[in-house]
């Protein structure tokens, strides 16, 4: 997707292009359910049983033959069926004491909940017969899932609900895509690792640790390649090493147009540059390309630009590469509690948080507050914020306007 250097690619166009280019990893491994949290399912899973496997009681109560209810005032309690046991066939004209989850005995087709029953001398009578119905309070065989039914489709990220569902049909191991190995490179002679003394003109390398946390949150494996000095030779060497070990390279810094910015030049000279300069703020210098057939997502160097471009652009690409079929999220709609009178030729993402205490009714929207300093070099706003507010190209905001809000939880979910 080659664009003139003076033209900025819209964010949605860039994301659409990225997702069109990505190739899903083909490497699969089988792991136990207990180790599968956050992993991406590689093959459709099919149930080999009915769930529930037999008709069972949805209540603690008494199992009876519905047609007998109008024939006699009370019933002898002929048996007791706790969960985990199988009762005998129901004797005609009797009731069976039954507990939630227990199999309904042959001959019974209704369960009367115990709160509607009266017990005396080993017999049960029912207090609200006019409300009784056939099959009431019975969960029938296969009501949830049936044999041969697809339980989960490939491409699903496995969480608590999915793992519980798989366990409910007896699956103990699942095929998942192998975790992506993501190489991380930080470029810049000004960078120093935390723990060392920072001299004049130097700054600590915060991007490495932000990216490590972000990659791990996606259940992928970060491979740190350290700080790369500002030279074309060092940049090319680092890319070559990273490409030999990783499925994907993510770099930060060195992607702008300065004399000491070599990332873009190296990708153009020794690989393929497909995308550069986006209509996004922060993060305009974002680039996408390949080096030795390994995709590269080249992020800007400013900490906020790294965070925003990762969440908005890199994360969907990475999730699709990992095998996920659903990578988009829907924003919440809220009410701006700020004014933004100036237009921008770039879509803006502002550190923000929701004030949910103000609305007195469910008809009112939560208010969005923004951090006072939205500079791309400011990272403290990310810690203060709960997410980002999205402001479109040429959009101005006045207090009370509706605005899109993406929580960090949803962006990383």
Continuous helix count: 8
Radius of gyration, CA atoms, in whole angstroms:
30 Å
What structural category arises from helix and sheet content? Answer: alpha/beta
- Total count of strands: 26
Q: Bin the helical content.
A: 10-25%
Query: What share of residues are in beta strands?
Result: 25-35%
| CATH fold assignment of the largest domain | Molybdenum Cofactor Biosythetic Enzyme, Chain A
Mean pLDDT, all residues: 94
Count of domain modules: 4
Biggest sheet strand order reads: 7-4-6-5-9-8
Give the name of the CATH superfamily of the largest domain: MoaB/Mog-like domain
User: Would you state the CATH class of the largest domain?
Assistant: Alpha Beta
Question: What does it look like?
Answer:
- This protein is of the alpha/beta class and 413 residues long.
- The chain has 4 domains: 161 residues, Molybdenum Cofactor Biosythetic Enzyme, Chain A (3-Layer(aba) Sandwich); 57 residues, Molybdopterin biosynthesis moea protein, domain 2 (Alpha-Beta Complex), CATH 3.90.105; 84 residues, Molybdopterin biosynthesis moeA protein, domain 3; 81 residues, Beta Barrel (Beta-clip), CATH 2.40.340.10.
- The strands form 7 sheets. A 6-stranded mixed β-sheet has the order 7-4-6-5-9-8, with no helix packed on it. Strands 16-13-17-21-20-18 form a 6-stranded mixed β-sheet, with helices on both faces. A 5-stranded mixed beta barrel has the order 22-24-23-25-26.
- Helix 1 runs parallel beside helix 6.
- The two termini are 29 Å apart.
- 39% of the residues are buried.
């Amino acid at each position: 997707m080659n664009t003139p250097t003076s033209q900025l690619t819209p964010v949605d166009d860039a994301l659409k292009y990225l997702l069109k280019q990505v190739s899903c990893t083909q490497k699969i491994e089988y792991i136990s359910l207990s180790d599968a949290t956050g992993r991406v399912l590689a093959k459709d899973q099919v149930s080999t049983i009915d769930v529930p496997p037999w008709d069972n009681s949805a209540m603690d109560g008494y199992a009876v033959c519905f047609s007998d209810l109008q024939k006699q005032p009370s019933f002898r309690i002929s048996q007791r069926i706790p969960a985990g046991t199988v009762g005998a066939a129901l004797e005609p004209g009797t009731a069976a004491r039954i507990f939630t989850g227990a199999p309904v005995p042959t001959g019974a087709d209704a369960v009367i909940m115990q709160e509607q029953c009266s017990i005396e001398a080993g017999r049960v009578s029912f207090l609200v017969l006019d409300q009784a119905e056939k099959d009431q309070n019975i969960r029938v065989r296969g009501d949830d899932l049936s044999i041969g039914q697809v339980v989960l489709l490939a491409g699903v990220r496995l969480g608590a609900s999915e793992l519980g569902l798989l366990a409910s049909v007896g699956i103990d191991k699942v095929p998942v895509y192998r975790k992506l190995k993501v190489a991380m490179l930080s470029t810049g002679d000004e960078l120093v690792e935390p723990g060392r003394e920072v001299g004049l003109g130097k700054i600590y390398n915060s991007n490495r640790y932000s990216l490590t946390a972000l990659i791990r949150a996606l259940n992928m494996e970060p491979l740190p390649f350290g700080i790369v000095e500002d030279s074309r030779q060092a940049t090319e060497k680092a890319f070559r090493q990273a490409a030999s070990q990783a499925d994907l390279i993510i770099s930060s810094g060195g992607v702008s147009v300065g004399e000491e910015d070599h990332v873009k030049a190296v990708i153009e000279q020794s690989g393929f540059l497909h995308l550069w300069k986006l209509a996004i703020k922060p993060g305009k210098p974002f680039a996408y390309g390949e080096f030795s057939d390994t995709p590269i997502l080249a992020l800007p160097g400013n900490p906020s630009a790294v965070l925003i471009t990762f969440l908005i652009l890199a994360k969907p690409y990475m999730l699709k590469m990992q095998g996920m079929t659903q990578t988009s999220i829907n924003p919440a709609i809220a009410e701006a509690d700020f004014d933004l009178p100036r237009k921008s030729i770039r879509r803006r993402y502002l550190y923000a948080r929701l004030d949910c205490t103000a609305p007195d009714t469910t008809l009112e929207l939560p208010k969005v507050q923004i951090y006072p300093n939205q500079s791309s070099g400011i990272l403290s706003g990310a810690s203060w914020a709960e997410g980002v507010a999205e402001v479109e190209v040429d959009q101005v905001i006045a207090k009370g306007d509706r605005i899109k809000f993406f929580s960090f939880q949803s962006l990383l979910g």
